[in-house]
Amino acid sequence: MLTENIKKLSKSEKLLLVGELWDDIADTPEEVPLTKAQEQQLDERYQHFCKNPEEGEPWAVVKDRIKKML
To answer: Where are the domains of the chain?
Structure first.
């Protein structure tokens, strides 16, 4: 069985497998449905952004700050 084979993998092999699975899922995000709660939260955040577009920071700025923290 697949689960038994996965349990036999080392931790590093499991991490590699998780990465490969994540990459495969990320290739087709449209196939991963959102829950109603997630859709509602995204809608609320978008509405807040539309009312307050000056708030927040550009992604490039945030990404650079995170990289510096690593």
So the answer is: 2-69
For the record, the structure tokens of 27 come out as 């290739």
Q: How far apart are the first and last CA of the chain?
A: 39
User: Please, are residues 29 and 37 in contact by the beta-carbon 8 Å criterion?
Assistant: no
Long-range contacts of 24-28 (CB under 8 A, 24+ apart): none
pTM comes to 0.52
Tens digits of per-residue pLDDT, 35-48? 999 999 999 999 99
Report the half-sphere exposure of 48 (CA within 13 A, side-chain side): 8
